[in-house]
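For reproducibility, we list the full input for the zinc ion complex.
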Amino acid sequence: MKKMMLASALLCGSALAMTGCQSTEGQLKTGNPLNQPVLKSTLKAVDGSNQEVGQIFLRPVDGGVQVYGKLMNMTPGSTVALHIHETGSCADMGKAAGGHFNPDNKPHAHPDDMNGHAGDLPNLTANDNGVATINYVNKKISAAEAGKYSVYRRAFIVHASADDYTSQPAGASGDRIACGIIEKN
Ligand SMILES: [Cu+2]
Ligand SMILES: [Zn+2]
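The corresponding predicted structure, in tokenized form, follows.
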């Protein structure tokens, strides 16, 4: 009996099992009912090595966009800033990405502050293995392909040090060390 239930569950995930899996058909008809990531970014070092340092995904959730993923090869124990910058270019050691994404002309702030840059995000701290994770719902951006708050074709930037969430215009977070353009997943 246990085996049969397992087989049934597996079939529900396949395109062949349209009957007996009521949710499957609905999932195919609507836009993004499973809340799969619709955008993603592969971040690379901007020191010329082009070394991949991680991936970050974005998916629409109630009230915002979930930003989640991980960075690798970080200095263990280090805390670094992460933001969405306005321009989708990583040229010139990340400087071409411009300033923080700021469609409403607000000051730089803690990411939870609704009166701050839309592109502001929480700092990340690397564990003993040099892995830093983010899982944050940003309420000021959109994962749509167009529109005032869309982050499609903008860029993630990782900085060398932590964001103090106060200093203008970018939290005194130091040099740009990694960059990734936000693409369709
Ligand atoms: Cu930044
Ligand atoms: Zn900012």
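The pocket of copper (II) ion (ligand 1) is lined by residues 81, 83, 85, 100, 157, 159, 170 (CB under 6 Å). The chain has two helices and ten strands. Both points were considered when choosing residues for closer inspection.
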